[in-house]
Specification:
By secondary structure, this protein is mainly α. It has helices at residues 5-23, 29-64, 90-100, 103-108, 128-140. The chain crosses the membrane at residues 7-30, 36-54.
């Protein structure tokens, strides 16, 4: 992190005072005090985050300038970048397609028989009186 917590306190105090002085003429003192406290806390946290980001960026520059021993310079490129390209697999794809078209596999698939599920049956001998009674019940409800 860059700097000390003193920066947080100074900027938070300035924010508290400005909010207090500007808000005092329009609000009662308790509301003014509460809003000034909120202003202090918000600025304190924002300055803290700003200092953390600056410290992180400055820390990254320090890591880049660290001297690497001669034994580790051979593997210097490993782990620094991520290769997002996929390898060319055209030859493997063609070989797979050729294997699926061979006659030996056709003989093994000769015994294949698609699934034939039993068909659902419905009773066609429905009494018309029962149907009329069911329709009457449905219309009553």
């Amino acid at each position: 992190m860059m700097g000390t917590i003193r920066w947080n306190l100074i900027i938070g105090s300035i924010s508290f005072l400005l909010t207090f002085l500007i808000s005092l003429g329009n609000n009662i003192w308790l509301t003014t005090l509460l809003r000034s406290l909120y202003s202090f806390l918000l600025m304190f946290v924002l300055v803290f985050l700003f200092r953390w980001v600056l410290g992180t960026i400055a820390g990254l520059h320090k890591l880049g300038s660290v001297d690497v021993p001669a034994a580790e310079t051979d593997d210097d490129h490993i782990g620094n970048a991520l290769d997002m390209s996929t390898p060319d697999e055209q030859e493997a794809l063609h070989a797979m397609l050729k294997q699926t078209n061979t006659p030996n596999e056709g003989a093994a698939n000769a015994g294949f028989k698609p699934l034939t599920p039993p068909k659902l049956s419905s009773s066609t001998t429905v009494d018309t009186a029962e149907m009329a009674q069911a329709v009457r019940r449905m219309t009553e409800e």
